[in-house]
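Q: Could you write out the predicted structure for this multi-component system? I'm mainly interested in how the pieces pack against one another.
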Amino acid sequence: MTLRRLAVAAAFALAAAAVTAAPAAAQPLRVCADPDYMPFSNRAGQGFENKLAQAVGHALGEPVTYVWRSMRGPGGFDQFLHDTLNAGRCDVVMNVPYASENVLVTRPYYVSSYVFVYAKKRKYDITSLDSPVLRDLKIGFEQDTPPETGLKLRALILHSKPFDVGDTPGESPADILAAVKSGQIGVAVTWQPSIGYFMRSYPGLVSVPLPNSRAAGTVEQYVFPMAMAARKTDTRTRDALDGAIGRNKDELQRVLRSFGVLIYTGPSDVQGAQT
Amino acid sequence: MRRVAVALFAAVTVTAAAVGYHTVAAQQRIALADMAQDSGQWVMPSQNYSATRHSALDEIKASNVGALKVAWTMSTGATRGHEGQPLVIGDTLYFESAYPNHVYAIDLSDYHIKWQYTPKQDPFAVSVACCDLVNRGVGYGDGKIIVNALDGQVIALDMNSGKPVWTVHNGDPAMGQTLTSAPLIIKDKLVVVGVSGGEFGVRGYLSAYDIKNGKRVWRAYSAGPDSDTLIGAGFSGPKNAGRSTWNGEQWKVGGGTTWGWYSYDPKLNSIYYGTGNPGTWNPTQRPGDNKWSMTIFARDADTGMAKWGYQMTPHDAWDYDGVNEMILVDLNMNGRTIPSLVHFDRNGFAYELDRRNGKLLLAKKFDPSVNWATHVDMTSGRPVVDPRYMTKAGTNVSGICPAAMGSKDQQPASYDEESGYFIVPTNHNCMDYKAFAVKYKSGFPFVGAIVKMYPGPGGNRGAVIAWDPIKGEVVWTDKERFPAWGGTLSTKGGVSFYGTMDGWFKAVDSKTGKELWKFHTPSGIIGNPISYTHGGKQYIAILSGVGGWAALGMAAGLTEPTAGLGAVNAAQDLKNYTQLGGDLVVFSL
């Protein structure tokens, strides 16, 4: 509940001569989302952020409404936040890294990681960016993500190919899987929740989590806890979301798993292709 | 002297054709260095090999500049940042727009377009260009106009027909390499080209191509073993430092791009240029001096072999690329005339070196707010860093001056031969730096630096200053609301010209900085003024068209303060003063 929404509710209550306390429950959960960015969200409500919003809305007894804006236009996610959540047009972003700046994050509701993806039949021995076989492979990566720095630190970037799905409307996180399948690249390094949903269409591929590392002499973070976000000043909404997360942890995890999201538990996990 | 040269030039060429004394056929027989002595033309991006940007024309002077008015204008057909300048060769004016890099040849007698050329480019270049889709102009030599395209192509066009003669790929956008700088043509035979980027750990290099056929003659890397950096027996500095000052194999992605300006001393046969920041932004990930990033290099023009290298900012922690122009002048210091190189660096220090051997003559702050280093130790040549302003992992560092865009970026200064002052366009922003912050690229979490830039002490974000190279001090300061992101032109008439991001084109007294005249152009200015003559009349030309890093918010439609490596916050109010759009604007009395 934001202050602004409370004020509206109060005005409504006055106008209606304070007949009932019920209208507060009818206030919608206003979600800021991308209308065309699967597997995260789309206008048809098919993404995992849509399903998570439904679950949270249900838990709070609030109908879900959306403010749509591309996260991948000029200025990317920061500009998206600036124009939606921080402009007061909506109140919740479903999926951001825990410890994000410029927003009020909830407690994390899942943890996932960057992963290597390669053809199962290759049986590569890859457990980290220091695995020797990487020196002989063309490596696809999403630019401006932690693996880019890791590839630079090891000079592996010299035989790598950048993808820019996160800044390019219309492109799909599945593009990097297609590149592995076609042999254009030997291995991909990407954020698991972006491709888990598509992995079922690529039964010949396997994914292996990329653990955090200090091997190159500096901290490299590949595992990220993820949270929801409210506006910086909106502790009421943040508290409401935290409550919903606490009471519905299993339901949220079930939604994530149904989208192939791998919940990170440690460096030994291996996710095979799911059918 | 220059007047004599012009007269001689006219005498030599007068028989060549009926279309005027500047003819293409005649120019091809005249060495580029001699053509650059003719103040009626502007045949190199920086006017001459010494990069002085000082015109010997004096029809326009302090007493009459108030009557300056628009002579002609033309749309460039592009809206992003126009950081370059036109060339004038004979009766034709040539210029290149911002991306998509339209190139025009304009007949100065009636302003019709003789030809237009737009290169076919790899669109991925747009996604990897860091700081707007700018361009800094074309080069000329051997009857060709040399065009650098954003996607790394270098294209030689026949100057009469605009048809491509040869094309080379000097970089690959898929590896983060782009091309925004202007080429320098040396001795009518070499095309010297740099590289921009570094986003994927590009290792910077300077390349020289044969102007006849585009064949590569040499390539000198900014990091790596001496065989790559073209360091041999003739080099005055340490051996193999391009490898030994890096951790492990990080030199392979060592950065040190070469996207600024290049100058040349025909007598010493030396090319001078600066290299950019080292590979990754985060300094804790790359221990060591990271040579030869942030370095002024002198190289043999024919072989590319290094003669000397002076690293200004070892182990850069602030993104103070050392690529700004190297201006070659003879300075009279302590009773001796020294062939010198003067360089106003992003890091806020003015460096003056003996260009024969790289010996440091003077290094002083040209903006008193500079605080990352207290001074430069004249014995070691190293900056004495103030640890309070050293960026490091997990620590918020506030109030670093200058901001990452530097006390001065690529916008070139001029050397006013009349007063002996350098007229220097500067920035005046400071920054807060957070080396490690969790961020989100739509769909992908990451850890990155958050940089916030804001106006420096006094509230002005830029200034044009006059620098006395002998005393090593600022003579006058004209404060500007925004960074002075356009270059300067000084003239024998005692008037200097520059444009501002809020759209003003100004004439000031070179000796005092007093504003004598101004005109509001269609867009903000980040380009560099030139002067030429046509029909015996002096003209001043400038590209208007705001953009570049300093105006990235407007150019890319960003309003989030930390976007554009923190630059957006520093120019939020630009929209109250100007809008995007490229135009050539030309003035005369």
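A: Regarding packing and overall arrangement: The radius of gyration of chain A is 21 Å.
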